[in-house]
C-alpha cells in the first residue's frame, strides 16, 4: 500500500469519528522507542475479528478495533500479509497473531502507542514471539514454545486449541527433543502419558526405526502418521527431520481411517521457516557414535514469498551389543511458495540411506529375567547371532506436497500428497525358540522387501456463524495405496551357539544349486487400498465447544502371490512346494466410525470434557469356516477429563479417564473345529495425568502418570501356564478370559526438568534431570509370570558460550545421558525369550546458530 493511500484511509477513519491516532516513524528502535519511556500496560481483553489479507490493511483494521496507535513505515510492510484473527483475546495476543510470520514483532511505549520492530535476521524460529508475558497463537504444526504447545492439527485437522478438544493430546515439542537428544521416535516418547515406548528394547538397539518400533498406546499397538498421512517408512523415525511429535490417545479413525482404539502418533516434518535459520552441529557418544547435522532455512525471493529449507544428517556408531552397528545419511529439502496471499504450496523430498540398521537378537529368559546356571550373567554386549551373517540395510525415498488455498472467509481448500518407497535387504540370524540351559539354536534368514505407498488427503474447511454460534467444519476424503513385495529364504541347517561363551563359526549357505544347502523360500506379494470420506463440525458458543464427526471407509486387500520353494532333494533344484497365488482373492471390508464430544472452557482456564469415539482395524488374511473374511476389529471409547491452562502462563495440566472396548477379537469356533470366529473382546481402562510447563523463562518441566488395565474381557481361548524357572508348561489349560493382555505395564510415571542457572551465578549454564518408572508386565496371555518393574534416570548439561563471550554468540555445548545408573533391565518377555533395555547412553554435541 502506498503512503498516500494509507493517509487517505486515516483521513476517512478520522472523519468517521474514530479515536484512532496514526503516525509514521522509522522501524529502528533508536528513532522511535528511545524517545519515550516504556510503560507496563495492563492486559486488556477484547473481541477481535480481522480477516487475513494485506498486512497494512490488517494493522489499520486492528488499530481501529483496539484503539491503539501503531507506528510503522507503510512501505516496509508492502507485500506482506497479515494472519486472520478471530475471538476474545488480549491486545498483545491479537497483534502477535496478525504479525506471526511477517518478520516483525512489536513493543509498547507510553499509553496506547505501539511500534513495529523488525525481527533480527539471526533469530532462530523455535516458536511464536512472546510479548508481555503472553504468547501469540502458535503454529499448530510448528515446534511449540519450550515444553508447551497450545494448538494442534492432528486431532481435528483444523487449527484448534488443545483445550477445546475433548480427548487426550500430548505434544513432544522441539525444545524437549533438543534437551533430551533422542535418537528415534520411541526415545522421544519416553515421557508421554499412555505410551509404552520401548517394549522391544535392544531389538532395535537405538537405531532410528520408524513405523516398526513396537510402541504401545493405551495397551494397543499404534500407527504413525507424517503430516497427516500414514507411513510405513523406516526413516519416519529420524528425529533430526521432525519439528514435533503428537500423541493422540484414543480412537482417531474419524479423521484417519484404520487406527487402533489406543490412538495414533502424528509427526510433522521440518519445513521452511518464516525467519532465517542457520544451524550446524557435530556430536559424539559412547559405543563409537559420531554425528553431524545441518539445518538451514532462508528466503529465496526478496519479499520472502519463496523460502527453502534443507536438513541433513550423517551418523555412524556401534551399539551396546557386539557386532551390531548403525550407519545413516539422509537429506530433507523443502520449498514453500506463497503464490498469493490466499494460496501456498510446499514441496518436500527426502532420501535416506541406512546401510547399518543396528539390529540385535533377543535373549533367553533364563540368564536375564531368571537366574541362569551362573546367575544373571548374560551381558548386554553378548551377540547371540552370527557376525558374518548380520547386516540390514534400508533405502528410503519420499516426495510430498502440501497445497492450500483460501477461496473466501467461509471456504478453504487443503491437499497433502505423499509418495514413499522403501527397500530393505536383511541377512540375519534369529533365535528360533529352541534353548537348553546354555545353548540357543539360530535360524539364518535372507530377506528382501520393497514397499511402495501413495497417499492423498483432500479436504475443504472453513467457518460460519448461526447467530452467535461458530461452526468450524471439515469435509474431506483420503486414500492410501500400499504395495508390499518380499522374498524370504531360510537355511534349514540351523547352527547352535553357546549363550555364555559364544564361538561364531557359521558359514552361510544360501545357494539353490549348491550341494549341502537346504533352503526354504517364500515369495509374498500383496496390495492394499483404503479410501475414506469424513466430515466434522466443531460448534462453539461462548465457553462451550461441541465436536461431531463421522467417516465411512472402504478397504480392499489382494494377495497377488504367495509361493513356497524348497531345494531339499537329491538334485538340489529349486522346486515349488506350494502355490497359494489364487487362494486369497480380493477381501473388501468397510466400516463407519464416528465421534462426539463436549468441552466447556471456564474463564479461569479450566476445561472439563467428555467424549465418545470409535475405531476400526481390518482383519484381512484369514477367513471363517465358510471362507468369508472376518469383520474389522471395532473399538469404542468413553473418555472424561480436565484440562487446565494457567492464564497468562505457559502451563498446561491435564487429567483423563478412559474405558475402551475392542470387539471382533478372534476366538475359537466351537462348532467348526479348527476355525476361528470373531466373538471376542479386549477391554482397556485407566487414567492419565500430565503437566507441560514453562514455569519461568529458565525452568521447564514435563511430568506424567499412566494407569492402564487391559484384559481379555471375552474369550474362550485357553493356554497352559509356564514355569518361570524351567520354561516348561504345567497343569491344565486355563481360560484367557479376565486375564491381562501381555507386555503392557499397568503403572508408568515420569518427570523431566531443565533449568538454566541465573546469570549472576553461572552465566549460560543449564542442567536437566529426569526419571522414568515402568511397572511389571505379564509374559503371556494367562499371567504365567511377570517382568520386573524398573526405574531409570536421565541427566544432561548445556552451556551457551554466547552468554559469556560475545564473540562466541550462537555456539552451544550439550551433554545428554540416559539410564544414568546403567541399570540392567528387561522390557518384555515371553515364556522363553526376553528383550533387554538400553544401558547407559552418553551423547554430547556442539551446535552453532548464526
UniProtKB/TrEMBL annotation:
Pfam families given in the database record: Plug, STN, TonB_dep_Rec_b-barrel
GO CC, one annotated term: cell outer membrane
GO biological process, one term: siderophore transport
UniProt xrefs under SMART domains: STN
Membrane topology: Multi-pass membrane protein
GO molecular function, a single term: signaling receptor activity
Keyword flag Transport: yes
Annotated signal sequence range: none
Cellular compartment(s): Cell outer membrane
Residues in Secretin/TonB short N-terminal domain copies: 68-119
Alphabetical UniProt keywords: Cell outer membrane, Ion transport, Iron, Iron transport, Membrane, Receptor, Signal, TonB box, Transmembrane, Transmembrane beta strand, Transport
Keyword Transmembrane (UniProt): yes
Predominant place of localization: membrane
Homology family: Belongs to the TonB-dependent receptor family.
PANTHER family with a match to the protein in the record: FERRICHROME IRON RECEPTOR-RELATED, FERRICHROME OUTER MEMBRANE TRANSPORTER_PHAGE RECEPTOR
Name of the protein this chain belongs to: TonB-dependent siderophore receptor
Organism, as annotated: Komagataeibacter rhaeticus
